[in-house]
Predict the 3D structure of the following.
Amino acid sequence: MGNKMEFVYTEVHVYQCACGKGNYSINWHTYRDDYFNEDTRKITVINCPDCIQTYNVSGLSLTHKVNSQNSGKAAVEMDGLCKTMVVHALKRYKVEMFNYVSNIPVARWHRLWKIGSPTLPTFRKNLKRDGAESTFKYNLSYGPSAIERILDTLKEMEIHDDQLLNWENELNLLKKEKRDAIKFETDHLFTGKLLKEYKTYEGPQY
Ligand SMILES: [Zn+2]
């Protein structure tokens, strides 16, 4: 009794693998508690000794392991670089930037930092409630958007920092690398022919 999740059934879709010698299957295990709340866990299996070496399952398709590694690597490098840039910029220009954005009209701050969510009226309210300092800090807490906000602010303030400019070029290259890798990945997805789909009351065997 209680709200413990119990296994109920599995929905299995089996697709032909890329080399055609085996298959890959996508299994959705459904769990339910005494209050009929349901939870589904997806488990994928590649049943082919060759394809399991080369592919991962992505969505309903197979994707080359090397491709997903490339986009993942670029993403990790981007994150690291963003953090380095934010630390550098805050160390040098935090006070100037804070004075700048907290003294321009709120709408301009909201637009300059491309905040989007929350909307301007809510941003205004939050700003009044939390104060400028914590709003400043909060909106610079996530690496990739933080560095964009910082760079835009410094540009508007006409502050030129060679080190940051070099890093910005490097960051743009990484962004392109990641975009290309993701594009390559989606262009080279293999979706096999659906061989069979069925429901089973057997629990997960993995
Ligand atoms: Zn295969």
